[in-house]
């Protein structure tokens, strides 16, 4: 029995229907599997409450949809409109936030690229050629014989589709998706740190203003005491030593003012930089002194430990662990065969109008198989490298959780003890204020020595200054506690609009680079 002739190219070759169905079924079945480990959020043990030993509870890293009410926009509970405005401006203008938003756009584009690898690729090509093979020789082009110069037009369409039988591209898309999640958590973490820093520097600036005002009032009072002492010296009821001590104490207090003013300006400069503005841009806004912000509502405490899962740095670490787990599967899939379906269609003619006619069409279709046979262990080593990387991120996740626990405990303890310290300092300042008033009155009546006045005023200034520093510490500890618990920004952040908008100039405008290139290369 003879071999039947091959059908003409224009009719194509078709796989028998049962075989085609079986092939597609097998491709779909194999396409559903992916080698490598599937990610599961690690289960870690957390204390049920903060503080001393308590029963433990298990948390598996599930992401909460919203922050607890007492953590969302916590800075607004300091009741300072200026601070609220600075936070809004920082979120809009901070350069670290802008960088984090750009990284979100990078991760989003990377994910789109990875997902695109799952789809077929179609390419087109075309060409035009004019040639002359010699006037005495005829050229055959399709069914036409020509001599002398002739034209040749070619059009082609190619397509390829990697079946991804072992999930290399799907693992890549999975890793890119987790990478996008990680970039978004990095943006949230940047916002959390930014808002905490803005609040801290703002409170410190108000603290320096209060301390400067205290030093100025104290120095003025001490100058009055020195003037009184000089008057008593002239009356013969005080000594030159008393005058020297009084003037020396006033000068010592005045010497504190430049240092406080310098610290205040440096704090303002840092605050302006956080807003993405020049260092001196906040001088006018902050010129008018305001009280040190104080947390007046109940302060978060005894918060369940799973609130830590709202911390963006913990969630970032967990997403990175998921990303690098998927990369293990991606490296493992590279050790398996790679199957693709490849096809192309092309047509050629000596005239444009003849393109696409049946007699000029040629096509091909078929599977392409690539099998790694020998690579000296390179692919296996790549899997081991990916596994080691995954382990690093697992350890980093555990470290992030422990650091979060430590941050909460430290901030909670610091706030608790600072509030006790502040109450004692307030009592101390009140007592020294009474002592200074009594010492001054007794000195004026001649019933006490000037040393009593000197000691009382020095102690009063020290106690009042320490109390102001403690008030600042209470609020900054409150800021640290809210940061440690994951409180932060809950408003909209535009991570899609680029910072730089490219305006494509016409080619004839931008062609001047060629002239510069030629001239720099020794051309005319």
UniProtKB/TrEMBL annotation:
<keyword id="KW-1134">Transmembrane beta strand</keyword>
<dbReference type="GO" id="GO:0015562">
    <property type="term" value="F:efflux transmembrane transporter activity"/>
</dbReference>
<dbReference type="GO" id="GO:0005886">
    <property type="term" value="C:plasma membrane"/>
</dbReference>
<dbReference type="Pfam" id="PF02321">
    <property type="entry name" value="OEP"/>
</dbReference>
<keyword id="KW-0472">Membrane</keyword>
<dbReference type="InterPro" id="IPR010131">
    <property type="entry name" value="MdtP/NodT-like"/>
</dbReference>
<protein>
    <submittedName>
        <fullName>Efflux transporter outer membrane subunit</fullName>
    </submittedName>
</protein>
<comment type="similarity">
    <text>Belongs to the outer membrane factor (OMF) (TC 1.B.17) family.</text>
</comment>
<keyword id="KW-0812">Transmembrane</keyword>
<keyword id="KW-0449">Lipoprotein</keyword>
<dbReference type="InterPro" id="IPR003423">
    <property type="entry name" value="OMP_efflux"/>
</dbReference>
<keyword id="KW-0564">Palmitate</keyword>
């Amino acid at each position: 029995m003879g071999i039947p002739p091959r059908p003409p190219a224009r009719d194509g070759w078709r796989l028998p229907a049962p075989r085609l169905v079986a092939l597609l079924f097998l491709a779909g079945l194999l396409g559903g599997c992916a080698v490598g480990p599937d990610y599961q959020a690690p289960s870690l043990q957390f204390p049920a409450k903060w503080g001393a030993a308590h029963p433990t509870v298990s948390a598996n890293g599930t992401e909460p949809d919203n922050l607890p009410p007492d953590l969302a926009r916590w800075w607004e509970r300091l009741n300072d409109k200026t601070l609220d405005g600075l936070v809004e401006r920082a979120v809009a203008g901070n350069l670290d936030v802008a960088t984090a938003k750009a990284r979100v756009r990078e991760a989003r584009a990377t994910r789109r690229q990875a997902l695109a690898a799952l789809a077929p690729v179609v390419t087109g090509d075309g060409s035009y050629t004019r040639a002359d093979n010699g006037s005495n020789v005829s050229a055959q082009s399709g069914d036409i014989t020509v001599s002398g110069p002739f034209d040749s037009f070619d059009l082609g369409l190619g397509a390829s589709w990697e079946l991804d039988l072992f999930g290399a591209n799907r693992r890549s898309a999975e890793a890119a998706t987790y990478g996008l999640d990680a970039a978004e958590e990095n943006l949230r973490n940047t916002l959390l740190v930014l808002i905490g820093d803005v609040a801290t520097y703002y409170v410190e600036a108000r603290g320096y203003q209060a301390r400067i005002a205290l030093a100025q009032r104290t120095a003025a009072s001490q100058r009055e005491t020195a003037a009184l002492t000089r008057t008593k010296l002239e009356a013969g009821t005080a000594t030159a030593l008393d005058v020297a001590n009084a003037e020396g104490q006033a000068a010592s207090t005045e010497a504190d003012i430049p240092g406080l003013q310098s610290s205040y300006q440096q704090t303002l400069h840092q605050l302006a930089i956080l807003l993405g503005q020049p260092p001196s841009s906040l001088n006018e806004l902050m010129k008018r002194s305001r009280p040190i912000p104080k947390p007046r509502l109940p302060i978060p405490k005894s918060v369940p430990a799973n609130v830590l899962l709202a911390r963006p740095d913990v969630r970032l670490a967990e997403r990175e662990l998921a990303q690098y787990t998927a990369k293990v599967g991606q490296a493992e899939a590279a050790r398996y065969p790679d199957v693709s379906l490849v096809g192309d269609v092309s047509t050629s003619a000596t005239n444009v109008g003849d393109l696409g006619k049946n007699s000029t069409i040629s096509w091909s279709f078929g599977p392409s198989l690539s099998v790694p046979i020998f690579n000296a262990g390179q692919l296996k080593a790549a899997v081991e490298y990916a596994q080691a990387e995954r382990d690093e991120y697992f350890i980093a996740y555990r470290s992030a959780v422990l650091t979060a626990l430590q941050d909460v405990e430290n901030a909670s303890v610091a706030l608790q003890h600072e509030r006790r310290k502040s109450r004692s300092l307030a009592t101390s300042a009140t007592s020294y204020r009474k002592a200074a008033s009594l010492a001054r009155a007794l000195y004026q009546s001649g019933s006490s020595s000037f040393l009593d006045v000197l000691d009382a005023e020095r102690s009063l200034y020290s106690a009042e200054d320490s109390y102001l520093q403690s008030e600042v510490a209470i609020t900054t500890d409150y800021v640290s506690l809210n940061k440690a618990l994951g409180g932060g920004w809950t408003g909209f952040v535009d991570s899609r609009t680029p910072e730089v908008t490219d305006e494509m100039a016409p080619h004839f405008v931008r062609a001047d680079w060629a002239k510069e290139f030629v001239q720099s290369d020794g051309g005319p």
